[in-house]
């Protein structure tokens, strides 16, 4: 129905007009049958005779003399991006009403400063691929290993330092914390359903990164997702010949983000924050082994049970269909 108070749908308007024009019914009789006024029937008959559409005409005026000119609109948008000022300040610069500035900013989705990238001043462009497997985001989250007895976040700085000093050395590499070592969480997330896969390792070398990618692709394939592309930053592992060869072997197109633009890989950056809040620092772990042992359980909760605003407040796995264990 065209609007809430319409007595006739476009299909019934056409039927009314054909009864009068093609079959010769009187207008008053058709009006009584369809319980509308005779001027209504006459209107649709005239439009039918002239070959017009049975849909409502636009109520927009043909001319709008008071409409803000294009030059002022462009200048308003430019000042918003460059100065990050509000409608009141911009209205003073442009000599127009604050309400007009607000309307312009709303029309281009710049009415909130959160829609503008703070570093570059450019609009934040949000995107989502239309089906699972179209794009995987990959990255590495670095976490300091937790000493036996607990880390400083829960036991305090003084006790935390004592725990670090008394904990046996963990395997180290040139990227690690010189005292305790670093946990490298290799994360993979599907752009469309937001389904996540993660593994913890003691390095972020190309050998480890490619092995994680291979296992992640197999994991997604087992759930009916065919991976087409993968997006990474410009880390050494992702620029290696081994990574390139692995992507070719898996028939995956590799894309890299623009340097110094982590926003391009924003979905996995946001997932890392959720990972930190929901698992890495969610409670007091008494050892690194205890925290690592909780990762699989938290990932299952994230994928199968945790509501995700990007998925209409449903768990990510609801965007995958006919998957074994989907509702477990």
What does this structure look like?
The protein has three domains: 40 residues; 46 residues; 184 residues, Nucleotidyltransferase, domain 5 (2-Layer Sandwich). The protein has a five-stranded mixed β-sheet, with helices on both faces. It is elongated. The longest helix has 16 residues. The protein starts with 9 loop residues before the first helix and ends in a 24-residue tail after the last helix. The chain is 41% helix and 10% strand. With 328 residues, it is α/β, with parallel strands linked by helices. The relative contact order is 0.09. The protein contains 13 helices and five strands.
Strand content: 5-15%
The count of DSSP E runs of length 2 or more, i.e. the number of strands, is 5
Strand order of the largest sheet: 3-2-1-4-5
Cα-atom radius of gyration: 30 Å
Structural class, from secondary structure content?
Answer: alpha/beta
**Helix proportion of residues, in percent?**
40-55%
CATH class of the largest domain: Alpha Beta
Assigned CATH superfamily of the largest domain: Ribonuclease H-like superfamily/Ribonuclease H
Euclidean distance between termini CA atoms: 42 Å
Poorly predicted ranges: 174-179
SSE diagram, text form:
Elements (H helix, E strand, L loop, with lengths): L9 H12 L5 H8 L3 H12 L20 H14 L3 H8 L3 H10 L28 E9 L7 H4 L1 H10 L15 E9 L5 E6 L4 H16 L7 E4 L8 H9 L3 E4 L9 H15 L7 H6 L1 H10 L24
Parallel strand pairs: 1-4, 4-5
Antiparallel strand pairs: 1-2, 2-3
Helix pairs in contact: 1-3, 2-3, 5-6, 9-10
């Amino acid at each position: 129905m065209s609007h809430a108070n319409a007595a006739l749908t476009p299909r019934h308007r056409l039927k009314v007009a054909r009864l009068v024009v093609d079959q010769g019914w009187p207008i008053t009789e058709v009006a009584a049958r369809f319980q509308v006024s005779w001027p209504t029937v006459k209107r649709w008959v005239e439009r039918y005779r002239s070959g017009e559409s049975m849909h409502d005409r636009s109520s927009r005026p043909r001319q709008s003399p008071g409409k803000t000119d294009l030059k002022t609109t462009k200048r308003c948008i430019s000042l918003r991006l460059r100065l990050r000022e509000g409608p009141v300040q911009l209205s003073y610069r442009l000599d127009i009403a604050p309400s007009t500035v607000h309307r312009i900013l709303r029309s281009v989705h710049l009415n909130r400063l959160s829609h503008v990238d703070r570093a570059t001043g450019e609009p934040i462009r949000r995107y989502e691929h239309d089906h699972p497997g179209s794009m995987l985001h990959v990255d590495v989250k670095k976490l300091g290993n937790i000493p036996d007895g607990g880390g400083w976040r829960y036991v305090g700085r003084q006790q935390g330092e004592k725990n670090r000093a008394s904990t046996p050395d963990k395997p180290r590499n040139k990227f690690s914390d010189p005292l305790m070592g670093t946990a490298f969480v290799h994360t993979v997330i599907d752009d469309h359903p937001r389904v996540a896969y993660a593994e913890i390792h003691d390095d972020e070398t190309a050998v480890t990164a490619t092995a994680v990618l291979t296992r992640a692709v197999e994991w997604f394939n087992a759930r009916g997702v065919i991976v087409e592309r993968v997006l990474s930053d410009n880390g050494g592992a992702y620029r290696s010949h081994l990574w390139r060869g692995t992507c070719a072997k898996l028939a995956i197109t590799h894309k890299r983000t623009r340097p110094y633009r982590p926003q391009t890989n924003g979905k996995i950056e946001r997932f890392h924050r959720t990972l930190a809040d929901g698992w890495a620092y969610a409670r007091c772990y008494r050892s690194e082994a205890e925290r690592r042992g909780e990762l699989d359980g938290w990932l299952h909760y994230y994928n199968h049970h945790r509501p995700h605003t990007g998925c209409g407040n449903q768990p990510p796995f609801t965007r995958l269909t006919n998957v074994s264990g989907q509702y477990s």
